Protein: Cytochrome c domain-containing protein
Organism: Segetibacter aerophilus
Amino acid sequence: MKTYLKSIARFICIGVFAGCALRRSEPLVGTFEPKTTEVAKGQVLYNEYCQKCHPGGEGGLGPDINWNPAPSFIKKFQVRHGLGVMPSFKKNEISKDELEAIGKYMKAYKHQKRS
Ligand code: HEC
């Protein structure tokens, strides 16, 4: 029974890490061209803070956030306060302007994907 549980746990762990590693090795967006400097800044920040769990805005360890229709203030709240596995990012980690840029980037990225 114990070994059975262990192998399930191991299977899940390997699955999660393999999934992350594979997705992480891919470029976030092959064709995404940020059109403003703020979006470009947001992209860099997103890659630094969010990409590991939300690769390309799609489901990874975290859920798909490209298609989350929640208004941006709710998304910002989520970043500031965290939820479940998602950590919270305080103002000394991600400033207000930086969070704004991340939001602009997420918006630009999802609109580009749709077209
Ligand atoms: C350690 C992994 C991790 C990191 C880093 C992370 N997230 Fe998350 N995120 C999650 C998980 C897990 C959830 C789902 C939380 C839940 O519902 O319990 C989530 C949920 C979200 C949601 C809500 C999605 C929904 O449909 O409910 C948004 C928006 C979001 N994250 C944005 C971000 C942004 C922006 C960043 C970077 C500043 C970020 N996340 C960094 C793991 C992460």
